[in-house]
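G., the chain you wanted modeled:
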Amino acid sequence: MNTRGTIDRPLTHDPKKQAPMKPSTSEPAGSATTDFSTTGATESRQNRNREMQLMQEALARAHMHERLHDAGRERQALRLVNARKMQRRAERASLRARRALAMAVMQ
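Predicted structure as tokens:
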């Protein structure tokens, strides 16, 4: 393949800068009459299909970005909860050490 980008991972995300769509190879060349209205309709349909596909890809990309962002926030919240647990544990250990030192001094 000579193309550097794919439909899933285009070289650029700007539809105006992307290569034009190639005609379908499933139909033989010259099977339809090259009428002005047919040609315009085919180009319009191809552009609309491509635009719809690009819209779906952009929507999927935005959805994945949102999920990654949510996962990052979830990880940050878990780290905060763990940090608070560790802080409370350290405070309790500090109190036990102070009590033990006070008991040792009192004797």
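The longest helix spans residues 36-106.

Shout if anything looks off.
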